[in-house]
């Protein structure tokens, strides 16, 4: 039996995912899933000079669609504000173009093991147990990412920690 556990651990490492708990994983490498199977995967920002504090992708279950997400501090008082985009143009874009490709935007909340709600922390912080994107589900249905060949299953707004990318 011991050999089987070693084999599973080696396989998980080879696939780039380790079964760590959120406290053992940085937010930059955390992987989450909602009840529909949509995956929210954080990625390292890659620059200390970046305006954003976190980057992530949401892979839509049952479709070959990935939405891009960024987190920036905004508001008064400052708090993490996320934006999820679908097929946004690059380079000089107008506000109307950016608005047309925005799937969701709003504050990003976390839930810890005791059920306490907080704000998403920087990418080098321990991974949250759960991520909340308020009204993400309805926003997804009303966006350009919804329809034939795209998203066709609802999201619950709540994503639970499932693993850590290596």
The tally of strands reads 11
Low-confidence stretches: 1-20
- How would a textbook summarize the main sheet? 11 strands, antiparallel
- Rg, Cα atoms, Å: 17 Å
Count of folded domains:
1
By secondary-structure content and strand pairing, the structural class works out as: alpha+beta
Multimerization state: single chain
Helix content: 10-25%
* Sequence of secondary-structure elements: HEEEEEEHEEEEHE
**How large is the count of helical segments?**
3
Beta-strand residue fraction: 25-35%
Mean pLDDT: 83
What is the first-to-last residue Cα distance? 25 Å
What general outline do the C-alpha atoms trace? globular
Task: Write structural notes for this entry.
With 166 residues, the chain is α+β, with helices and mostly antiparallel strands. Helices cover 16% and strands 34% of the residues. Strands 1, 2, 3, 4, 5, 6, 7, 8, 9, 10 and 11 form an eleven-stranded antiparallel β-sheet that branches.
């Amino acid at each position: 039996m011991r050999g089987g556990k070693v084999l599973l651990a080696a396989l998980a490492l080879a696939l780039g995912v380790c079964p760590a708990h959120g406290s053992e994983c940085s937010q930059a490498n955390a992987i989450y899933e909602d009840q529909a199977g949509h995956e929210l995967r954080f990625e390292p920002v890659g620059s200390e000079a970046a305006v954003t504090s976190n980057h992530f992708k949401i892979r839509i279950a049952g479709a070959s669609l990935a939405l891009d997400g960024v987190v920036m501090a905004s508001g008064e008082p400052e708090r993490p504000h996320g934006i999820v985009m679908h097929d946004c143009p690059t380079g000089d874009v107008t506000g109307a173009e950016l608005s047309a490709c925005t799937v969701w935007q709003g504050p990003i909340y976390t839930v810890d093991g005791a059920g306490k709600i907080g704000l998403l922390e920087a990418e080098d912080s321990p991974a949250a147990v759960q991520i909340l994107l308020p009204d993400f589900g309805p926003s997804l249905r009303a966006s350009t990412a919804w329809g034939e060949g795209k998203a066709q299953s609802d999201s619950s707004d709540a994503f639970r920690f499932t693993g850590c990318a290596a």
